[in-house]
Amino acid sequence: MTYIDVFNGDADGIFSLIQMRKAKPVKASEQKLISGVKRDNSLIKKISDGEADAAIITALDISFDKNTDDLKRVLEKADSVFYCDHHQAKSLFDHEKLTHLIDFSPNVCTGLLVSKHLGGMFHEWAITAAFGDSLDSVGFAESDKLGLHRDNAQQLRELGILVNYNGYGATVEDLHFAPEALYRALCTYGSPFEAINDTHSPFAQLQKGFAEDVEQAARAEHIQNDDVVTAVMLDNAPWARRISGTLGNDLAHQNPDKAVVIATPNADGETLTISLRAPKSNLQGAGDICSSFPTGGGRAGAAGVNALPINDLGQFVDAVADYYE
């Protein structure tokens, strides 16, 4: 039997799969991992017809809408598909081999959905996923339910932020760890706290890289900063691509009544990668705004555009300001 695990390369995708495989372990020789940078959501296409044949496929934290055609293709061959995600799914369909668990409410993430599906067996990993997805209030509330001390909750928050930070980049080469390697490394630990307390774990390595990138980001240019929008332009460099999402989340927490736009130049020199965070006090609209631009999409609270023409940046920021005024 072949198990194909397809997952987003961010914290939510990685911690969701860790929960699944701790609940239902598989031999490494029978497991194929498919992932990529955080914005690479079209991952089912990487499964060939031959690989799909009689395979048990798990898809976590990747947009249903961006994988619909390839999902239909692999369903013709696969034994079964379990699909869990929290992005909009306008193309959602039923199939006898497909089990889907989709909820795009703004205060859920895939890790929390997986934890509920598994009866909370490994909920500390789910809490870490929530923190990684910038759902701080949810993460702290769930930590309180488990009786965790606030210091321990803060540790989970830092791990979530660091693993999420690792997922940002134009290519896997921008990242400190390939998502598949990061998953394998973290899955060896019995709990998130074991990973945090091991000085040789990815946690310690990501701490160092994160601190260096944050120092660079502190010098970033604000292209707009008013009562409605904070917009920042980063450099065309790997550090900028890595820190873009985390910087957006941090600014959103610091300015809960403002929308946050992070613009990072792409390698083509003609387009920008855009990260948009809705105001924490008004978690709606981000996905709709970004979807109105080619290559854009996302959730109500957090969304982005993969290739916005540089000349359209002003139009994009104006659209954000108009929506949230």
SSE topology sketch:
Blueprint: E1 3-7, H1 11-23, E2 31-34, H2 49-52, E3 56-60, H3 68-75, E4 80-85, E5 98-102, H4 110-117, H5 123-132, H6 136-146, H7 150-166, H8 179-187, H9 192-197, H10 202-217, E6 221-225, E7 229-233, H11 238-254, E8 259-265, E9 271-277, H12 286-291, E10 296-298, E11 302-309, H13 313-324
Parallel strand pairs: 1-2, 1-3, 3-4, 4-5, 7-8
Antiparallel strand pairs: 6-7, 8-9, 9-11, 10-11
Can you describe what's shown?
The protein is of the alpha/beta class and 325 residues long. It has two domains: 3-208, inorganic pyrophosphatase (n-terminal core); 219-324, Roll (Diaminopimelate Epimerase, Chain A, domain 1), CATH 3.10.310. It is built from 13 helices and eleven strands. α1 packs antiparallel against α5 and α1 packs across α8. The protein starts with a strand and ends with a helix. The mean pLDDT is 96.
